[in-house]
Amino acid sequence: YFSVSYGTRSNGNKYVELVLEKLLDREEQAEMGFSVIAVDGGSPLRSGTIEISIVILDVNDNVPVFTQERYIGQVLENMPEGSLVLTVMATDQDAGVNGDISYQLSQAVGQSDSAFVIDPITGEIKLTKPLDFEAAQTHELSVRARDGGGLSAICKVLVEVVDVNDNAPELVVSSFSSPLPENTVPGTVVALFAHDPDSGRNSLQSYELSGDEHFSLAVQAGPGGDQRPELVLAKALDREEAAFHELVLRASDGGDPARTGTARIRVTVLDANDNAPVFSQAEYTVRVSEDVPVGSTLVTVTATDADEGLNGHVKYS
């Protein structure tokens, strides 16, 4: 790294200079030690030696480096405020202030009200509020590590929210046909129900329908693999037998402990003209004397219709 040059000044004094021959790297070798030997021209030769110690001062020529380009952490959605998510770490080969690292956190565009905070010294990322799996299943963050000289580096952090069974099944009717015509064909879907907002094993797993044999339950797989119950007409209706039907649907999820939800359904049956008028007698026998005046009432016939409204209004001819 060094060489010696020497000569004589204009005043006759001799000088010796230590010259740097190539660039130093403090991170490769922080100190150097060697001897400079001066030899005269006499006989015998005589020499003098001096020990040189070189201490290399640091300049900020190294950027902080993260231990990982991408960090992935998982957090249960019911973890309280202040819980540790994960710790990022960056190192800097420079010394002193140039090697002191501080951390800053920024959240992805479109995700406001950050639920995370980072310790600027330790790099620990913690929650500022509980997360909600049903609101967002992942959170993308960026962490910047900056050294004391102004150089910085960025890493990405992906936080995956793990679902817990914090929602009871919500059997909200998303589609419902009521009143239902009494001549509706069995197999017709009468109602659709919304699925449980939880996912995986915490989502809906089993159903139970009670209240009426005219209806049954079919379970279809949704686009995300979730189960979606459908209320189906299983047996032909008869409004004259029952004008409405009361049903109870109970759903259970697969969480531990399991949660249940209940929905009460009332299906009103709409009349169809499926009943012919019926006379009170199949045959009327009337004895009339031949001198009965014109316009006299001979007999009154009566017919009834089990249907309602216009369908049950009887006319005679």
Automatic annotation (TrEMBL):
GO cellular component: plasma membrane
Keyword check for Repeat: yes
One Pfam short name: Cadherin
Keywords assigned: Calcium, Cell adhesion, Cell membrane, Glycoprotein, Membrane, Repeat, Signal, Transmembrane, Transmembrane helix
Annotated compartments: Cell membrane
GO biological process entries: homophilic cell adhesion via plasma membrane adhesion molecules
GO MF annotation, one: calcium ion binding
Protein origin, superkingdom: Eukaryota
InterPro entries: Cadherin-like_dom, Cadherin-like_sf, Cadherin_CS, Protocadherin/Cadherin-CA
Main subcellular localisation: membrane
Descriptive protein name: PCDBD protein
